[in-house]
Sequence to fold (367 residues):
Amino acid sequence: MTTDIKMATEGRIARLREKFDDSELDAIIISNTENRRYFSGFKGSAGNLIISRDKAVLATDFRYTEQAGLQAPAFDVLQIRPALDWLHETLSDMGAKRIGFEADEMTVSGHERIRKALNEAAGDETTYTLIPTNGIGVGLRAVKDAQELALLTRAIEIGDKAFDDVSAQIKAGMTENEVAWEIEKSIREQGAESLSFETIVGSGPNGARPHHLAADRFIQEGEPIVIDMGCQYQGYCSDLTRTIVIGEPDAKFKEIYDITLTAQLTAIETVVAGMTGEDADMLARNVITEAGYGDNFGHSLGHGVGLEVHEGPGVGARAKGKLEDGMVFTIEPGIYLTGWGGVRIEDVVVLENGRARVISKARKVSP
Ligand code: GLY
Ligand code: MN
Ligand code: MN
Fold:
């Protein structure tokens, strides 16, 4: 496993270095938690990666030094103290002067602290140039490698089984919270470390709010119940939505469910590599709009999934980036009617040979 991590992270670092030329970087400081884990394998909650063209250092504190050595075989581990004198030492050892940082991640005060510390240590203000970078890690993470796909597939399997087992036992009179707790127990019993987000159980009118969390409402027969759930397994997230009914669905449910399912299957069957996220979004949105419910589908068709439950690629109305083979994302159209409830159906797909392969296997209602 250590060999796998070493090979995987070395490949990821090589792809990161290919991006250095865009901004003429000598090195980059990676401080985002998920990027740090992606490039190094290190799971701790504090530390910075300093990656130059030929060196890779993981700087962390006493609490994590041993762990970093075990989890990040492609890195030299440096135990640091809060003072930043180590940064100048590390960068000068690398011969690095033009230093990239993650502009979406670093605070203004963090940037100022680094700038001052480097200038003081170097003895002048011209030695180092701090260069903002945007979305390099997130961009590389959008295309999954084989190891990531295996972990995502396992996370999704765990989520699917939790849904299939728990949904078969839901009865009128249970509360949304009881359902959410059964799902959480199943996820943990199957070896996932946590939920990937708070479980959504939206019964009856609660389902009209796309991100209603589970509450103490009693579930009733015949009403739509939106269950949106996910787990995190070895860092990787699952994300699944099903909408079910206890007892007999009425004509209204059948109508709304059928439109949503048609929209979802249309997007799954017709999305192809090379489309933008915006093009993909329209595949489902056109079906819902033509059925007269365009105003009731007020969120994006989907989003990338990986170390974060929401990450690249964008799959929505303003997503201009192109979808590529190896990208993993959700397809989750929904229709929401205030006072009645909602229907959302969500699967995770991976683009392979230009087309979507559905990874999620959880049972879908066919009304
Ligand atoms: N649970 C949030 C989502 O499906 O994106
Ligand atoms: Mn979801
Ligand atoms: Mn989702």
Remarks:
- The chain has a mean pLDDT of 96.
- The longest strand covers residues 224-229.
